[in-house]
Amino acid sequence: MSLTRRLLRTLAAGATAAATVLVPVTSAHAAGAYTLVVLPDQGENAIYDLVNSATSSVDVTIYELRDTTLTTALVNRQKAGVRVRVVMDPNHSSVNGAAYSALTAGGVSVVYSSSTFTYTHQKTITVDRARSYVSTGNFDSTYYATSRDYGVLDTDPADVAAIEQVFDADYAHTAITPSDGTDLVWSPTDSQNRLLALVNGAQHSLDVEQEEFGDPALVNAVVAAARRGVAVRVVAEDTSGKYTTQFDQVTAAGGKVTTYTSSTGFYVHAKAIVADYGTATAKVFAGSENFSDNSLNHNRELGLIIADPAVLSGVESTITADFDRVPSTGGGTGGGGGTGTCTAAQLLGNPGFETGTASPWTATAGVLNSAATEPAHSGSWDVWLDGRGTTGTDTLSQTVTVPAGCTAALTYWLHVDTAETTTTTAYDKLTVTANGTTVATHSNLDHRTGYAQHTVDLSAYAGQSVTLTFSGTEDYTEQTSFVLDDLALNVS
């Protein structure tokens, strides 16, 4: 993930914790060796299910880890007697710090990666030394709802063995020349050469989806492919116009380019290539490697190049949808590409505030609460709006994208505690809005012992980016506290 993206997208959110429908696959190497997950369409449950299935070991190498569901799952596996180890990039303590603390407190063995690498940008989970999930995306719920990414569950024995050998070395900070197993592409060992060979070998078509597009060797190879008559399509992120010169080179050579530029909407974070789709020599790459010098030659990175028909089809149809700008969230579901179907998901990031910070919510300072005075509905944290007995307003808001074709329901647990004695007048109010339109209201008249759950139908916002805001307002005297916890925006 680029620094530009992290700086510009602080309001983008959405933790997808939904039932995941995986694309069934067959493999040229081993039956059922690969399973494709298209993100955000299919959600993150594949990684949660993988971790929760572990019986002996879980090994994670990750650039950014900011997903409390995943962190909790790792700690729970450790407590269940599974050996859990994590190698984490040391350069992003502001992002990784909370997970590092939670994991170590839970008994998980966490090490920061070696300074041999500029960044450890790899994104991999291996379970029981038998199944590896190789991802283009980080395990960061801040970006789940809006990031185009791919994950491949790889059970090829040679691949998994090679991934574990490198993990063991990186965990111990010892040097290793990685094995490519059957399909693997490693940085800084051989990724530039392997990706160049894939691009240079394309004879009929070449589809590239990339967050970064700056490596001269690979850009020149894409341009050369277009010049020799290969049908070239590039889908890329270009929020700041950083790669305009490179894209112009592609189009001047006869290629076609689609870029995305929203800092808070759909974001191309994927790193994928499909060469000669529909032919006997078709291959697909997916992994953590960007088209950049750091990524290819100085970082620890991992991807894979395979000829699996279902993975090829899933990535190709999604790139096509992204190129054509037709899907609600940027790509197809189940590898179908822009089908308009809805995968069940929970979209809010940090819905129970258990990170101990507001992010990705935007909130009035001081409203995050762990005091027993206003206890949480579950866990340790809640958000406590108002309660001062003086004129003022506290707010809590988050922006998410509701996929088209979905029904959507906002749920939240609310405790109203008040010193007002009236039974007829709403002096203090909590207003819930979606894009500025009021969808629910509460007041001091709704006070009660304990929490009550409330549900708001937001299906009218399908296919839109929606900002949800809780605004608590008190008058000049007699406090009313509006305490929120365990929120969810469920789509189905």
Task: Please describe what this structure looks like.
By secondary structure, this protein is an alpha+beta fold. The chain has helices at residues 3-8, 45-52, 68-79, 93-105, 157-172, 191-200, 216-227, 244-252, 293-297, 309-324; strands at 34-39, 57-62, 65-66, 83-88, 109-112, 124-127, 131-135, 139-140, 147-154, 184-187, 205-210, 231-237, 256-260, 267-268, 271-275, 283-287, 301-306, 345-346, 362-363, 368-369, 382-386, 392-402, 408-418, 429-434, 437-443, 452-457, 464-474, 480-491. Helix 2 packs parallel to helix 3, helix 6 (191-200) runs parallel beside helix 7 (216-227) and helix 7 (216-227) runs parallel beside helix 8. The longest helix has 16 residues, at 157-172. The protein is globular, with a radius of gyration of 24 Å. Mean pLDDT is 88; it is low at 1-31 and 327-340.
Helices and strands in order, then pairings?
Layout lengths: L2 H6 L25 E6 L5 H8 L4 E6 L2 E2 L1 H12 L3 E6 L4 H13 L3 E4 L11 E4 L3 E5 L3 E2 L6 E8 L2 H16 L11 E4 L3 H10 L4 E6 L5 H12 L3 E7 L6 H9 L3 E5 L6 E2 L2 E5 L7 E5 L5 H5 L3 E6 L2 H16 L20 E2 L15 E2 L4 E2 L12 E5 L5 E11 L5 E11 L10 E6 L2 E7 L8 E6 L6 E11 L5 E12 L1
Parallel strand pairs: 2-4, 3-8, 4-5, 9-14, 11-12, 12-13
Antiparallel strand pairs: 1-9, 2-6, 6-7, 7-9, 10-17, 11-15, 15-16, 16-17, 18-28, 19-22, 20-21, 21-28, 22-27, 23-26, 23-28, 24-25, 24-27
Helix pairs in contact: 2-3, 6-7, 7-8
